[in-house]
Write a structure and sequence with these properties.
Layout: E1 2-3, H1 5-10, H2 14-22, E2 29-30, E3 44-46, E4 51-53, H3 55-82
Parallel strand pairs: 1-2
Antiparallel strand pairs: 3-4
Length: 84
């Protein structure tokens, strides 16, 4: 997964940034000039969580936040209808 060095700094993950600079990680690599579709990598810093996420992660989180309340309301309505 491509990851932005600046996003790691902004999220307060200097330790992980130093780790990646000094050794290798089987999952992550730095975004560079060779990186295609870099904007889909981990580029969104979340300093309050000390995380860096991708736009895809953000869409998944938003989908879950909107899906579960709707699903629970639908389940409650069906349960009420079944109990009538």
């Amino acid at each position: 997964m491509p990851v932005s060095a600046q996003a790691l700094k902004d999220a307060g993950l200097q330790d992980f940034l130093q780790f990646m600079q000094n050794s290798s990680d089987a999952v992550h690599n730095f975004i560079g000039p060779h990186t295609k579709l870099w904007f889909l990598g981990d580029v969104i810093p979340l300093p309050f969580l000390k995380k860096v996420i991708s736009p895809g992660d953000a869409f998944i989180i938003l989908g879950v936040l909107f899906f579960f309340p709707e699903a629970t309301q639908l389940a409650k309505r069906k349960l009420k209808e079944a109990n009538k």
